[in-house]
């Protein structure tokens, strides 16, 4: 089906724009911050598993309370994160009190009440997800808001999905999100047709809604301390300043709990893969005011490709101090050390035929352009201090300070020409860099009303100082090798060769932003979200020696970022929404000698969608239709007087439709999605021709993962799962529209058995051993190669 039949007829597009413009004109703009509140929900049943109806559920010394429905379910929104005394009572039952922890990730309780007037079973569970059901995310609007009422396309993958998939990096879970894929073995991803990959500051990755990516672009982000992963589709400048036009990914990390818990996980797999981790949490004091969590991980693996070896060490201690029910302080530290022979994945060879076509199956999987003498060493450290205080139930304050430092020592061989007679010329990159990010965020939230209108207002400010204090880079020629019979003995001679290109500089950028947001509630069915943000960038690149052969860049950019959204619930469990989003990104180059300064890159999105909660809120469905325009992309525009001149062009347009379904029904868990996308250039320039397809942007992607857990029987605890991922053909290079990667379909499967505190799991990936390429970077010589058939065996043990 062509997209224009769904979205882009003139009449429909005109109506689409008129609707959004009406929202903008009717409501003045206001913006975003993050609320430190959570959702408490659960189910209360009898010993016979019958629902307890109309039971009173209250949190002591607060106004929070509700009653269970006909299914024994209860739900309390907007609870400040912390420890509470839960009181449950009902006629014919003995009232019971117990401590419960409410976290920003949500708390779910399964409670059983005995009809013999005995107390509720002692259960305190924090941040437990209901299977695959996403529940909520406060990242999209930075306030407590169910996904059903969130006027944006948001998808959340829970810890249970990560466990069932045995996914240990973002690359391994990317295909589970609708319309997202990993382009190669590095930190490059496609979302809504846009490549999210930034050598300067990969800001499409957030931690608990705060900027400051722990990992460099050459790495696959690790998930040792991640509770859940969220994808917010579309530009998110109103919330997070600079961000990829296709979306941002938010990692929700594991927090200290007031209950003692210890677990260990061990995994073995193909290509000598081995992994071990431990997770310990609990109170450090009898009063349970001081809580801790310690996560330690180690993994090492080789590859189906020659000379690959990678080792990761990960440590993440954290502390939480609960001053009162309304005041808390959390400190989280992350340290990740990586050593690899080939940290920067340059992909596998692709043969160019005499007629200009490409043979993607000519060269064997195991070949690599890199040398056994290559290496990459990274040390990544972050520390986040978060203070939360509730003055009362309506006024709350949060202050967050995040510090990140990344160091890289790296040597790598790359292709420097085309393949001829099964041999290729190479270049050598020798690089040392020291990068940092200092992020300060402060915001206050206030709930009030004016007449019939309810307001949830957030006002905040950000300060981000980021860049690098060292960027020592040299590009040199290296030896030519035979692809089938490489001889690396001459590689050492290139280490001391003169540099053809050289950088030796530092770059400091200061970002100051302020924002205000108002969620207007007309009634329970109609809400309008209005935001306005102002950002100012001021940066400078300074040469550190005469070896830096480039002029330093200066950066000054500022602008307003509006957002307007409307959500309407025609039925209790069905919503429709419309959203206008915008962001701007400063240019990575503003050199005067190249024609700078240039206007900022700007992304503008219009989106319409509908969401539904089905089967007693256990299954979530979402449909969205969107258009994104990305303007002021820089391209070469040489003149006789200036061969280095650049110019900003109209840019690209991405249109699409997305459909997703996920949740848990009885013993079944499901994640399913389909995405159609059309991402093309909208004008002709040296960048390409109007209508050219953008690189790494397939028209169609689909995914399915289904798990069945055997109920009460002799096989209780047994789980069986299977899945499939489909990606249609995709252009690998914008400048060569004939360079098209073939479509691919990949099948995965898993089986696990849980008994008591033990869980044993077996996962098999790419069951059909499909040979496929995932994406490209900058040439037709190599491409990202998908993993062939491989497996993992894991065992986990809950110590207590």
From TrEMBL:
PANTHER family: FERRICHROME IRON RECEPTOR-RELATED, FERRICHROME OUTER MEMBRANE TRANSPORTER_PHAGE RECEPTOR. SUPFAM superfamilies: Carboxypeptidase regulatory domain-like (SSF49464), Porins (SSF56935). Belongs to the TonB-dependent receptor family. It is found in: Cell outer membrane. Signal peptide: none annotated. It is a multi-pass membrane protein. CDD domains: ligand_gated_channel. NCBIfam families: TonB-siderophor (TIGR01783). Residues 338-767 form the TonB-dependent receptor-like beta-barrel domain. It comes from the Bacteria. Keywords: Cell outer membrane, Ion transport, Iron, Iron transport, Membrane, Receptor, Signal, TonB box, Transmembrane, Transmembrane beta strand, Transport. Residues 147-248 form the TonB-dependent receptor plug domain. Pfam families: CarbopepD_reg_2, Plug, TonB_dep_Rec_b-barrel. This is TonB-dependent receptor.
């Amino acid at each position: 089906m062509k997209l224009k039949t769904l979205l882009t007829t003139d009449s429909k597009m005109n109506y689409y724009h008129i609707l959004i413009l009406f929202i903008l004109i009717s409501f003045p703009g206001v913006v975003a911050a993050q609320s430190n509140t959570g959702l408490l929900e659960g189910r209360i049943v009898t010993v016979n598993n019958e629902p307890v109806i109309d039971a009173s559920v209250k949190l002591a010394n607060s106004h929070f309370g509700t009653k269970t429905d006909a299914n024994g379910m209860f739900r309390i929104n907007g609870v400040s994160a912390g420890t509470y005394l839960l009181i449950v009572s009902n006629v014919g039952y003995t009232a019971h009190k117990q401590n419960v922890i409410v976290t920003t990730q949500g708390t779910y309780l399964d409670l059983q009440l005995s009809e013999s007037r005995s107390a509720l079973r002692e259960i305190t569970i924090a941040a437990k997800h209901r299977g695959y059901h996403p529940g909520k995310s406060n990242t999209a609007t930075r306030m407590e808001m169910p996904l059903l009422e969130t006027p944006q396309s948001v998808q959340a993958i829970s810890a249970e999905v990560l466990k069932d998939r045995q996914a240990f990096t973002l690359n391994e879970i990317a295909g589970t999100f609708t319309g997202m894929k990993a382009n190669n073995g590095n930190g490059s991803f496609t979302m809504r047709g846009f490549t999210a990959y930034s050598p300067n500051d990969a800001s499409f990755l957030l931690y608990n809604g705060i900027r400051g990516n722990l990992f460099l672009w050459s790495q696959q982000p690790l998930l040792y301390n991640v509770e859940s992963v969220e994808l917010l589709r579309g530009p998110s400048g109103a919330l997070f300043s600079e961000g990829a036009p296709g979306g941002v990914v938010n990692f929700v990390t594991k927090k200290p709990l007031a209950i003692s818990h210890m677990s260990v996980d061990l995994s073995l797999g193909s290509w000598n893969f081995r992994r071990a981790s431990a997770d310990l949490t609990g109170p450090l004091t009898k009063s349970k005011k001081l809580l801790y969590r310690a996560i330690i991980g180690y993994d090492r693996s080789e590859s189906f490709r020659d000379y690959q070896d990678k080792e990761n060490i990960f440590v993440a201690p954290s502390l939480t101090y609960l001053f009162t029910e309304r005041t808390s302080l959390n400190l989280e530290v992350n340290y990740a050390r990586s050593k690899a022979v080939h940290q920067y994945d340059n992909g596998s060879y692709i043969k160019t035929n005499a007629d200009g076509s490409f043979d993607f199956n000519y060269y064997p999987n195991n070949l690599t352009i890199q040398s056994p003498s290559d290496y990459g060493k990274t040390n990544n450290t972050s520390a986040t201090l978060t203070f939360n205080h509730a003055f009362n139930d309506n006024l709350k304050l949060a202050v967050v300070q995040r510090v990140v430092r990344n160091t890289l020592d790296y040597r790598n061989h790359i292709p420097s020409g085309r393949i001829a007679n099964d041999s290729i010329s190479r270049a050598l990159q020798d690089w040392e860099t020291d990068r940092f990010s200092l992020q300060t965020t402060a915001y206050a939230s206030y709930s009030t009303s004016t007449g019939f209108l309810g307001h949830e207002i957030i006002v905040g400010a950000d300060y981000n100082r980021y860049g690098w204090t060292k960027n020592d880079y040299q590009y040199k020629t290296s030896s030519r090798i035979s692809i089938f019979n490489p001889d690396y003995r001459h590689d050492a001679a290139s280490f001391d060769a003169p540099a053809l290109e050289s950088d030796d500089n530092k770059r400091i950028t200061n970002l100051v932003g302020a924002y205000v947001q108002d969620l207007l509630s007309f009634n329970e069915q109609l809400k309008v979200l209005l935001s306005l943000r102002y950002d100012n960038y001021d940066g400078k690149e300074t040469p550190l020696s005469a070896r830096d052969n480039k002029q330093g860049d200066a950066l000054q950019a500022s602008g307003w970022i509006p957002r307007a959204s409307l959500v309407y619930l025609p039925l209790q469990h069905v919503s429709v929404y419309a959203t206008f989003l915008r962001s701007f990104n400063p240019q990575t180059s503003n050199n005067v000698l190249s024609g700078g300064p240039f206007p900022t890159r700007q992304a503008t999105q219009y989106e319409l969608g509908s969401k539904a909660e089905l089967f007693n809120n256990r299954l979530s469905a979402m449909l969205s239709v969107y258009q994104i325009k990305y303007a002021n992309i820089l391209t070469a525009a040489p003149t006789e007087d200036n061969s280095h001149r650049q110019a900003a062009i109209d840019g690209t347009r991405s249109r699409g439709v997305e459909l997703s379904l996920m949740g848990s029904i009885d013993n079944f868990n499901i994640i399913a999605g389909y995405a159609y996308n059309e991402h093309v250039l909208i004008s002709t320039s040296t960048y390409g021709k109007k209508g050219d397809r953008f690189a790494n942007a397939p028209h169609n992607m689909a995914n399915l993962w289904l798990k069945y857990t055997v109920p009460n029987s002799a096989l209780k605890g047994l789980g069986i799962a299977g899945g499939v991922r489909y990606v249609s053909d995709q252009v690998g290079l914008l400048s060569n529209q004939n360079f098209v990667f073939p479509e691919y379909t990949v099948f995965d499967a898993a089986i696990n058995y849980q008994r008591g505190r033990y869980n044993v799991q077996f996962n098999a990936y790419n069951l059909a051993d499909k040979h496929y390429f995932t994406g490209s970077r900058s040439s037709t010589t190599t491409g990202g190669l998908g993993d062939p058939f491989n497996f993992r065996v894991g065992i986990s043990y809950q110590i207590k």
